Fold this sequence. Notes:
- The chain is of the alpha/beta class.
- The chain has helices at residues 41-52, 62-65, 125-140, 165-176, 218-221, 226-234, 314-325, 332-347; strands at residues 3-7, 14-18, 23-25, 32-34, 106-112, 147-151, 184-190, 193-197, 209-213, 224-225, 242-248, 260-262, 268-270, 283-288, 298-302, 309-313, 371-374.
- It has 2 domains: 1-38; 40-374, Rossmann fold (3-Layer(aba) Sandwich).
- 22% of the residues lie in helices and 21% in strands.
Amino acid sequence: MASRQVRCNQCGSLLMVSAETRVVECTVCHGMTQIRPSITGAWSEVVYNSFHQFGGRLRSFANTIMPGSGSVNNSNPRGYYGTPQIAYYPPPPQSLRPSYNAYGPKRAVLCGICYHGKDNQLNGTVNDVKNMNIFLVKECGFPRESILILTDDMEERNPQKFPTKYNILKAMRWLIEGSQSGDSLVFQFSGHGCQELDTNGDFDELDERDEAICPVDWEKQGIILDDDINAAIVRPLPYGAKLHAIIDSCNSGTVLDLAYVWSQRDTWDYQYGGPDKDTSGGLAICISGCGDYQSSKEIPVLSGGGGGNAVTGVFTYSFIYTMLNEPAGLSYGGLLSSMRSTIRGMLNNPNASLFNTDFTLAPRQDLQKPQLSSSMEFDVYTARVEL
């Protein structure tokens, strides 16, 4: 009889169940977990076929992931604005120590937030996470049980998987705790980002502004500053371990407070951050959706056959598309160049009216440009991208 592993909805423990099991009692906390059908290989194949078929017309894989998604609100590019009402979220417990266990040398935290019902609602962020999940499992060898997903997907019923500020910080600690030499860690965030004045007196920002990501409850619990992200997943990174942060949000160029930023002049620029922002010997690399003063867009793309539009983050789409379609041994420099070219093609598409956007009216220099930053210098044209 076929069996598979699932997580307990209460404590996160790994449970072995048969394929026919629909409800299981946890042997650790005795909580009851409802079992959902697992993702099938055929479903994944359909998604990746659409990436490989990408050509003169943009083809959507999002319909496969979000069938019957209904109408799409494309009026707002990604940004940080509005004063939407916030739903009630229970206060977090005092401890931020993760209740999850770490599994193996490859681990990932994927976070996608749509901010349902708010003025600045997004539509493609949960798709971004679902596609990244499939990419990491299918193409990069990440075990499913080693990927922790936080979304405000309307179907998510586990309060520990809801992307509140507390849960995101807790997930970051799960990602990094127990890491060692040889580990490959991934942190993905798709959602709103912002800047605010750096007022803590550490003088680590050349422009005197901190970058931040916005959890689903940011209006009550606050944003997550680059200082917090650095403290959670950069500083503890041990020697020999590698972290890739893939951040699809506005104002995200230096959102990990890493020391070096790859400039338009093909050189590493030192971004003063102070010695307390360094890793513990590991290598942290951030590939972000745009510069600190730019916006990351999401865009409805044409469906592959059934008509209608579905939504994805432009940056996340270009990242996965490039990783799948460029030759083996892709370098970081090649990745960045190809992604920027793909994004220019998407936002300057002659059929832009189909996307209900005015991106083509923006000056060329203002178009979204993915950024690369790192905790140390390396040759971006020889170092291979390996997650």
